[in-house]
């Protein structure tokens, strides 16, 4: 097993209460700055918040397991995610990869639950952006089965979990703003409608025996593209790893806490000062692993202004950002015509330059990213 790092756990309570003193918030901001500039990965907790309780973790884990325990025919009824950025529904094994390696996981992706009337009105006047839309829940008969004999509803549990995690993300934005010596509400300006385009992904990783992690992997080495990733992983077995000091090192889950990863967007905003960590998910060859990951995005229309002046954008762009890298598999890279990243005669690299230059917004860009990691070969 790889060595373990001294990754801090930060109590973010002061960022979640409107009555907190500036001193208390500043104290958390200092810890965040330290964690973001050392690893880009850390744990957060807040003992008084319902999210960080064993009973909540068990409830969310139980709902997740129930879903993946559905039989193949029921899973086949759940709409599968499609290329194109708006990812809702079932992710079949092999249906996505950030590299040419097969990722041995299945997933379920959901996000903001629009009130029916609001959704209808927005669909009628065509005012939804391309990352907004309805969730793709299992069929009603499957939902009934998922709820049978359980006091907590499957859908209700997951909806509440999503809202709680988004609240935590909003709290973190305050702390990160302070960490950057910016007004507390500065970063929230880039995330005014984040809750409606961000989403949660439930993952079920399957064990594989290749401990070189080359033939198969849980999640290929990558950085996350958005603002923040918030991960609940009750599995105690090895899984998430961080590339640090030139080697892969375990980031084991801790009770009553979430793992936070800085995203590429946040890192680029800060000229690379806050790290978007290079990470992957591996199997120990024996156990299954479950995780629930919220990918918190900036607004669809967000650009990437440089908020921290002490470093230049050229330096930032030289970092290892998956956001700026072509993640299609090798075969697709040779088939430029079939690649949306290549539209208008642009290759993935020059589209990334457009993003950095502010000529394309985050939402339009991220759609091409999702198409890069979509894999046609997914099977149940
Ligand atoms: O499952 C995890 O713990 C992390 C997954 C991940 O890194 C990702 O999907 O971007
Ligand atoms: Fe990730």
From TrEMBL:
Belongs to the iron/ascorbate-dependent oxidoreductase family. Residues 196-298 form the Fe2OG dioxygenase domain. It comes from the Eukaryota. This is Fe2OG dioxygenase domain-containing protein. InterPro entries: DIOX_N (IPR026992), IPNS-like_FE2OG_OXY (IPR044861), IPNS-like_sf (IPR027443), Iron_ascorbate_oxido_reductase (IPR050231), Oxoglu/Fe-dep_dioxygenase_dom (IPR005123). One of its GO terms (molecular function) is metal ion binding. It comes from Linnemannia schmuckeri. Coiled coil: none annotated. Keywords: Iron, Metal-binding, Oxidoreductase. The lineage of its organism: Eukaryota, Fungi, Fungi incertae sedis, Mucoromycota, Mortierellomycotina. The keyword Plastid does not apply.
């Amino acid at each position: 097993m790889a060595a373990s790092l001294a990754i801090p756990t930060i109590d973010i309570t002061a960022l979640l209460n409107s009555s907190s003193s500036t001193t208390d918030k500043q104290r958390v901001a200092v810890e965040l700055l330290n964690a973001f500039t050392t690893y880009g990965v850390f744990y957060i907790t807040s003992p008084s918040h319902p999210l960080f309780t064993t009973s909540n973790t068990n409830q969310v884990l139980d709902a997740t397991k129930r879903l993946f325990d559905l039989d193949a025919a029921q899973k086949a009824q759940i709409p599968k995610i499609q290329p194109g950025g708006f990812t809702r529904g079932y992710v079949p094994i092999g249906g996505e990869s950030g590299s040419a390696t097969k990722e041995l996981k299945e997933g379920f992706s959901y996000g903001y639950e629009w009130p029916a009337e609001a959704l209808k009105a927005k669909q009628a006047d065509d005012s939804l952006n391309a990352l907004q839309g309805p969730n793709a829940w299992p069929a009603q008969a499957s939902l009934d089965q998922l709820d049978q004999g359980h006091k907590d509803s499957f859908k209700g549990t997951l909806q509440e979990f999503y809202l709680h995690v988004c609240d935590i993300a909003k709290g973190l934005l305050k702390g990160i703003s302070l960490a950057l010596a910016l007004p507390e509400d500065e970063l929230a300006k880039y995330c005014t409608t984040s809750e409606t385009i961000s989403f949660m992904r439930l993952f079920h990783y399957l064990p594989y025996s290749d401990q070189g992690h080359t033939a198969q992997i849980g999640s290929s080495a990558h950085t996350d593209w958005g603002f923040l990733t918030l991960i609940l992983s009750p599995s105690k077995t090895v899984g998430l790893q961080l590339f640090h000091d030139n080697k892969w090192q375990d980031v084991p889950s801790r009770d009553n806490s979430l793992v936070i990863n800085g995203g590429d967007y946040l890192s680029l905003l800060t000229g690379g000062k806050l790290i978007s960590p290079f990470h992957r998910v591996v199997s120990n060859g024996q156990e299954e692993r479950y995780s629930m990951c919220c990918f918190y995005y900036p607004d669809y229309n967000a650009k990437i202004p440089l908020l921290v002046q002490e470093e230049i954008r050229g330096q930032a762009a030289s970092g290892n950002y998956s956001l700026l890298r072509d993640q299609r598999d090798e075969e697709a890279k040779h088939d430029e015509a079939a690649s949306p990243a290549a539209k208008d005669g642009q290759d993935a690299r020059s589209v990334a330059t457009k993003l950095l230059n502010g000529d394309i917004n985050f939402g339009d860009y991220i759609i091409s990213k999702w198409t890069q990691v979509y894999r046609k070969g997914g099977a149940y």
